[in-house]
Specification:
Blueprint: E1 7-16, E2 23-29, E3 40-41, E4 44-46, E5 56-58, H1 62-69, H2 79-98, E6 103-106, E7 108-112, E8 117-123, E9 132-140, E10 155-162, H3 163-167, H4 173-186, E11 195-199, E12 202-206
Parallel strand pairs: 1-9, 5-7, 8-11
Antiparallel strand pairs: 1-2, 1-4, 2-3, 2-10, 6-7, 8-9, 11-12
Helix pairs in contact: 1-2
Length: 207
């Protein structure tokens, strides 16, 4: 069986800190999807061509841009261009899947990338019919225009959960692992950025 090539993708983890404990935005994928149906995930998706040329309100912090640029898989790729497109993908997908905006919405979305951080990366196993090279980005919910999400065709339910509640949801394995990374960041003790990938069916972990 031919192995699918991973598609560049980005995910956004939003952290809300206005209550007694931090809460994370999660959405449940619709049951009709052929990729992780009914699983609870962070908003996100694959890069669209428009993400390379769409306007932005503010750019990535230089260190975040450099770290994302370094994740390019092909030498001919423009790393700086890829970094900005990944970040905009995360913001755009979050808007499309939850209705929440980081930036400005005036006819079209102008993403504010300045408050995003890059915390993890994972590539879907080779045996999957769909594969993604996903970069996990994180942002504070205070950057949002509104804290009230809406459901969509992609995510049938969207809600804020504290970390304990998140772990009680039906989560993909990688999402569960990323939650541990998120908890470290919330507690102010971020560890080295993990990079999970699989050879055939065997997981590898690299930094």
């Amino acid at each position: 069986m031919a192995i699918a090539r991973p598609r560049d993708a980005a995910t956004l983890i939003l952290v809300r800190r206005d209550g007694s404990s931090p809460r994370i935005l999660m959405g449940r994928r619709s049951g009709g999807h052929d990729f992780m149906p009914d699983k609870w995930v962070f908003p996100g998706g694959r890069i669209d061509r428009s993400d390379y040329r769409a306007p932005i309100l503010r750019d990535l912090a230089p260190d975040v841009a450099a770290d994302l640029a370094a994740t390019r898989r092909l030498q001919r790729q423009d790393g700086a261009r890829l970094a900005r497109a990944l970040a905009r993908t995360a913001v755009r997908e979050t808007y499309e899947e939850t209705g929440l905006v980081i930036g400005r919405l005036d006819g079209r979305l102008e993403a504010d990338l300045s408050g995003l951080s890059y915390i993890a990366r994972a590539i879907t196993p080779p045996a999957r019919h769909k594969r993604f090279d996903a970069r996990f980005l994180m942002a504070d919910a205070e950057q949002l225009q509104s804290l009230d999400p809406s459901d969509s065709r992609e995510l049938g339910e969207v809600a804020w959960f504290d970390l304990r509640e998140c772990r009680e949801l039906d989560l993909p394995t990688v999402t569960r692992a990323v939650l541990d990374v998120v908890e470290q960041h919330i507690q102010g003790r971020p560890a080295a950025r993990p990079f999970w990938r699989w050879t055939r069916q065997s997981p590898e972990s690299a930094i």
